[in-house]
Amino acid sequence: VEPSDPVALSERKWRQQNNRIIIIVLAIGMALVGIILSARMVTRELETARMKTDFAANVSHELRSPITQIRLKGEALQLDLVFSDEDRREHYDAIVRESERLSRLVDNVLDFAAIERGAKRYTFRPVDIGETVHSAVDAARFSMELRGMEIELDLSDTLPVVFHDPEAVSQVLHNLISNAAKYGRDGGWIGVTGEMTPEHGVQIAISDRGIGIGPEDHARIFEEYYRSNDPRARRQKGTGIGLTIVRYIMEAHGGTIDVKSAIGQGTTFTLNFPLKPPDAVGT
Ligand code: ADP
After folding, report:
1. Using CA positions, which residue lies closest to atom 19 of ligand 1?
2. Model's pTM, two decimal places?
3. What is the average pLDDT score of the chain?
4. Distance between CA 274 and CA 265 in Å, rounded?
5. Residues with CB under 6 A from ligand 1
6. Are 101 and 68 in contact, with CB atoms under 8 Å apart?
7. pLDDT confidence band for 148 (50 / 70 / 90)
8. 3 Cα to the center of ligand 1, angstroms
9. Is 201 left (phi over 0), alpha (psi -120 to 50) or beta?
């Protein structure tokens, strides 16, 4: 038996062989892509698991310091170990200060949990944004001065009424100001400015002259649990959720947050609030 067209037959054989090679190469390629994607996912999951474990340890660590302070000062008063009125006053002040720190930390953790569950609600009201910034800075001023830091406020007289949730915006300012104090301590100065711009609406900026943030971290610092690996930043205690809450609150207000920073040159976070009422996120 002989093939009627041997050339066509060998061409078909050649094509079939080629097809088989292509299928094998494609299968190997797909398997490789699968392996790489799975490895990436596993690495990411492991990183998230590590960050969550660190978070639990960091929260416990942060809770311990104010609790210890409150107990020590309270015991000293209870055992009458404080002799002058001035000392007594200092002990009461420290107890109030540390309790406030404790409740802000707990607020941050509870808010973060509510944000993660999608259960956080804000109430937007037409309020003078200048007043909200003013009272948040005044509330922070005392503890900043105790830490030897100067806080300078420069608000334009023409700041308009902005639809916002004043408690939530105060929390944003508190988180940014306490970060400026933590990571900007060497600079000894925190600046808060507020102005109205035609392109971005109301802009509130919080600046420090501290350690700064490297470009590789600019986007990541807003991720949940993320803390920079810079050893100078790691020297400070933290939980890695402060900026996540800030970003979430700004998004809920229909606004944005930008960061400008370079290592060793200080940092400026700018909040942009639109003048239009935000879409009623949980109003
Ligand atoms: P943390 O509790 O660690 O401060 P945040 O979410 O508030 O968590 O900040 C995330 C990271 O961003 C910090 O760990 C720090 O590395 C960096 N960061 C935030 N604010 C500043 C700042 N003003 N200067 C330098 N680094 C900052």
Report:
1. 179
2. 0.84
3. 93
4. 29
5. 179-180, 183-184, 208, 210-213, 221, 226-228, 233, 238-244, 267
6. no
7. confident
8. 78
9. left
